[in-house]
Amino acid sequence: MSTRLATGGRLIDRTKPLNFTFNGKRLRGFAGDTLASALLGANQMLLGRSFKYHRPRGLVGSGVEEPNALVGLGRSGRFEPDQRTTTTELFDGAETVSQNHWPTLDLDIGVVNNWAYRFLPAGFYYKTFMFPRFAWKHLFEPIVRRSAGLGRAPSLRDEDRYEQAYGFCDVLVAGGGVAGLAAALAAARKGARVIVLEQTAHWGGRAPVDGGTIDGQSPDDWIRNTLQTIEKMENVTLRRRCMAAGLYDHGYVLGYEQIADTTPGDGRPRHRLWRIRAARVVTATGALERPLAFAGNDVPGVMLASGLRDYLVNWAVSPGDRTVIVTNNDDAYRTALALHEAGLVVPAILDARASVTGALPDAARALGIRVLEGRGIAKVHGGKRVTGVSVCAQAGEGSVLEDIACDAVAMSGGWSPIVHLWSHCGGKLLWDAPRAMFRPDAARPPTGADGQPMAVAVGAANGVFALSAILAEAKDTAPAPAIPAPDDEAPMAPVWVMPQGAPDALRYKMWLDFQNDVKVSDVQLAAREGYASVEHTKRYTTLGMATDQGKLSNINGLAILSDALGQPIPATGTTTFRPPYTPISFGAIAGEARGEIFQPLRRTPMHEWHATHGAHWEPVGLWRRPYTYLRHGEGLHDSVRREVRNTRAAVGLLDASTLGKIVVKGPDAGKFLDMLYTNMMSTLPVGKCRYGLMCSENGFLSDDGVVVRLSEDSWLCHTTSGGADRIHGWMEDWLQCEWWDWKVHTVNLTEQFAQVAVVGPNARKLLEKLGGMDVSAAALPFMTFTEGVLAGIRARVFRISFSGELSYEIAVPASEGMAFWTACLQAGEDLGLMPYGTEALHIMRAEKGFIMIGDETDGTVIPQDLGLGWAISKKKADYLGKRAQERAHMANPDRWQLVGLETLDGSVLPDGVLALAAGVNGNGQKNTQGRVTSTYFSPTLNKGIAMGLVRHGPQRMGEVLDFPTEGGKVVQARICDPVFYDKDGEKQNV
Amino acid sequence: MLTLTCPCCGVAAEETELAPGGEAHLKRFGPGASDEDFETYMFARKNPKGVHFERWRHAYGCGKWFLAARCTATLEVFGTYPAQTTEPPADLIARIKTRRPDWEGCK
Questions:
Q1: Domain B3-26+35-99 has CATH 3.50.50.60
Q2: CA distances (Å), A828 to each of A303, A604, A641, A651, A760, in order?
Q3: Which tens digits make up the pLDDT trace of A787-832?
Q4: What is the pTM (predicted TM-score) of this model?
Q5: Which of A548, A648, A733, A983 could form an S-S bond across to A67 if both were Cys, CB 3.0 to 4.6 Å?
Q6: Which residue in B has a C-alpha nearest to residue A247's C-alpha?
């Protein structure tokens, strides 16, 4: 059993016990524990179940590489699945639950998959998709969906908050081990602004566990002294619990800082995402130990030698009384020595190398530990816990030479430098064959904006493991010319399968990816089935696609693949390293951009009034506009109908402030607007208004609005509410990049003015009551404008109409918008005034056959399709979109064109439905001849009205079209004039 | 996440401040142009692996458009320059040729 030792543990504080639960069981750990060390110390070896076969799973490692020991952590609004216990610090009251089992962790029905492994091989999913066709949907998918997946997704809103921050530095050091600290100190002494990120809570990396001397000091002393020096330097920022998650273009580093994970609810942000710009990045990210592939290497109790050593030294946790070491290198002997020093038993060290001579093995032998040369593990015994191993010759086929009883196995297949950051942005790797590792190729680093290297790898991340060499290299942060061998270690021997001649029966039980259940046999099968690319094999077998992203499995897997393909490892290559290095929370990515501040909210000057008068909001770009003003007990439809009827009968008030208002001024402004609009704006007389259309250079209608000639050299261009910024940008694009010698100045004044539309038969009376200006038909005819004072407020009054009614739009300074709105409300009290919203606006414009950008247009419609040929100048030599509209398919009479549609039964057509035509197309789909673009119930006409685009539509007045709707029904509608109401315009001509 | 220096306001702007505008130095073809010329102007865009001249707007800064010469493969930035020009400045061309001796020049 695993247990807490009576003494030792360099990271734990035994005076501060902490209580926590696992699956409801109350357990105890110490301050300084991780969840993993506390669970292991409490004899909780079984921590979860694997993804596919539901095999029992225990801890393999002690850090970010851990694939198995994931738990659900927290409760209700702070519950989060798949939390890696090895990197989660223990805190008092932590609630954890195991995952991926039913009904319980100890008794899991899903383990039947384990016995069916021959039927769940590599590419299982793909094969179920392929044959038989019905089987995926009806048989496999329900089973897979039920049994797959790890943690359960949270169902409640996240109660925590998150934030983002920016950092800037000359040198960013990723990793706070010996190499990182030495590099940081060296850079800081040269005056650089330095940021050091360390993903764990502790400085110094592995050195304090692994031992040795640095500059004549013990690792712990050296780290303490170095930190003291660095902390006094103002140009260095040290940040623990902050992982360099990714390196991106031009020295952009994403840092993921865990702030309040162990103090939930204390008010601080849980995580902080750092967006750091570094001139140069030092990757001092260390290395990860690789597992060995032997049968039963996934049984709980089989751990990485380094991980086991960490639990022992850092947290005084013994994973077992009797630990067998299996290795292909000298480093694992450190674990044997540490176990021996803790008073635990090492029955044997199985070393795959034929001859073992180094200093470390000698030290083990001197302590009386059996060292078996040329030996490996044939098979691990045990189910939920290791009970023993069978020993075989590494060179053989697995014949058992001896059985050794043990309750833990420490394995080491060598070390892989952590090259993720180096690789994220294009840094290349080279294969170091003698040490069986990919390491950064200093000749092909990631490069920055200036084309110069932007990263340098140091220490174990660069394949440099000897402390003396690390120090020398890090001090000048230049790559070592030649990689020296570790101080006191003999060469390792690559071992990818143990024993090397293992038969199928053993290969079926050799795990590569512990979480996703990918075995040596799966990768070999993929190769036999033709998967020669490592990227394809990865996706076919799911090797390295689990939450650990193959930190333990990738190198072993591609070595197996290379062997199966009969090619050297560098010819196979690695899969792509993508950020983030380990999973980061969605909360950190979102930061504070959630809820009400997900995006900015634009408010008109009358926004608050709307809010307190029943506004039902409609989002329009970043604005909120009242869709309608609900009265007590009223439904949306009734409210909208009331507003339409009242506006047509008496007078309505609309907040039109969101309308885009761009002033175009200058000697060449007229010439410029003639290019921008399809019609002629330069000839518009001062004081007049003209409806204008803008097209893209590809000919399609892009925006519309009323243009006003304010003075000899200035025009005011109204745009759609959603289009103001886009159109202003469009103007600036042409002025800055094409016609930069034209003397034109543009200003987007949308937010500087409030605009109010007074609409309806009583509109003039209302303005007359406001007083200050002659608004008579003679003084202010249709499509003119005047400036003056209205209700004591400076105002521009435009006599324009989007409803067919007598209508004025009045622009006043934004600061006086609310005052003017109030004045209108007061003046309109006895004139039947009601405010109306955007839906009434839409209905009234549709009753008049006016198009709406975004309804009648969708980026494929030209003005000519909409019967707007009258607004296209025939006199102009050029305007944006003119050449495009001359193309043959734009002039094709078969294009769908705008018509009105009235249903035979008076019902409202569904939006967007297609009109059927005879026959079917090449895909067997019914042919179509038109579609509905706008459709409403007209309160004025008391029936459904619609506009649509129909093939040859204007020539087919009176024809009836079939529109299929949901449920197989067909609604019939007759083609008619799109102007449904007041065709002669008598209502506005008063 | 690129950084480009806006030649108008001098700010080294991060990509989040910038809006891309596609290929630079397009020649506009309007009414009277052949179908082929118009098609080229409207649709045919260079997509080189290597040196590329691009339009960018300092959208959340000074608002001005500018042009940039950039390697699409390594993201090396050779320089930025004002939009009010019909061809890249000579000193920029010279710098690119130093950095990319095999570059065949603007075509």
A1: no
A2: 82, 21, 20, 8, 11
A3: 999 999 999 999 999 999 999 999 999 999 999 999 999 999 999 9
A4: 0.91
A5: A548
A6: B1
